[in-house]
# Entry
Amino acid sequence: MPRTRYQRSRQCECGCGGWTRGGKFLPGHDAKLKSILLQRARAGDTTAQAELERRGWVRTVAANGARRFGVEIEFMVSQNIGVAGVVEALAAQGLTCSFAGYTHEVRSTWKLVTDGSLRAARGDMGLELVSPPMAGADGFEQLRKACAALATVNAKINRSCGLHVHHEARDMNVAAVRAMVANYTEAQMAINSILPASRHNSSYAAPWAGFQVEELNHCTTIQAMARVATRYKTVNLCSYPKYGTVELRQHSGSVEYAKISAWVRFGQAMMDAAKAQTRINAGTIADVLAQITIAAEDRAYWLRRAARFAVAA
# Structure
């Protein structure tokens, strides 16, 4: 039986309540929806950003000019609290989170995943809290709430934990990504001075070897650069082909907002310097900080960290 006009109709996906002749949108309404979503995404709405990407309308929207980032926080929690307790604590902070087992799927909400590299003490369990792509003030506010939630469940870390931060890199060309690795490698000793010794040559975040950095000079695409080394590097390029990010993996585990947010901002500053083709010269952490654009309070924070680790050594 032939379909009637009514049977072929469907509601316009812009949410206006009108009916199309079978397509997804009434004429011009797709542009209207895209404009609304773009405006919300630029204000830091990660749900709007996810919808734009789902529809294939845009791959990257910088919120208020800020580079997007995502965090992976490895931690331990009592088995008595468990996954359900962590999810409940996040919900109390206004963050939607679900348990995803072991997965690398990007979601528009927070997720908890398992990680076989985490070594938990008896009575504890190791988990990894993964954020959605975030940006700007909204992103840091979400991060603050996540850390507050982890504090309420007495989350803790040990030497098996790490902190991984993905930074949006789709706006960077081959030269910029090459500069990111070169700059980080040049500053490696200075960066080591602000991190515990256990993170100076971790098997999960190993420094780039000189011959590997040199090999990047012969790559003509970022995809080719991603094949030069494994993902277990201080600067992981393997995340670029799938996620469009550069991942910084060297920081030690932490559930503290002050530490995590400072490391995010340091990574953002390094990314921006690489994009601007600023070449960092080796020296102390003070020298490195002087060559990137970073807030005075962050500069003071890293200098205090360096002084503390110098005394400990």
About this structure: Residues 257-275 form the longest helix (19 residues).
